[in-house]
Request: fold
Amino acid sequence: MAGFYERVIGAPLINCLCGSGFITRYRAEIVPYATGHVLELGIGSGLNLPLYDPAKVTRVTGVDPSARMRELGAARLAAAAFPVDCIGLSGEDIDLPMASIDTVVVTFSLCTIPNALRALQAAKRLLKPGGELLFLEHGRAPDPIVATWQDRLNGVWNRLACGCNLNRNMPLLIEEAGFEIQTLGQEYARGLPRLAAYLSFGRAH
Reply:
């Protein structure tokens, strides 16, 4: 039943929401900073691909366990102006040469990866010296009332949203993985329920 729900309802719904115009505007503020060989954690249906600068990006390696999301983005992956290859694994299980990646990109995926800390630590080991992490995530709100409801409803949300978690502290998670955040923006995104609207976005080394 879970597989049927994800394929028919969950994945198309998430693809639609994450590809909406107001979310794309946030993506467009972060993704074009990527350079060289990019590792994208949770590439999904490739919503970031049109936003990469083909003059700066040489290849994108995407990691995502959802075959359904890759199906939804097949045309987008095929139309990319640079080589794109996808690894059908979760972010914790990346198997690439050490220090082979110039930029790691993760957008609206750390909320879903079961062991997000381990995935970030694995990505950090793959980065070349001076490499960069670009991130755009929703997570735990600073408002105590909103945060309380995030905790209360996280279990139900997790099941309905194909593993998404409402209450992860994204900047703390990134720092715990060994990154140093260079720039950080945080705000409630308009157009989303406040439970899932608190965004953290920026760049880390």
Observations:
- The mean pLDDT is 90.
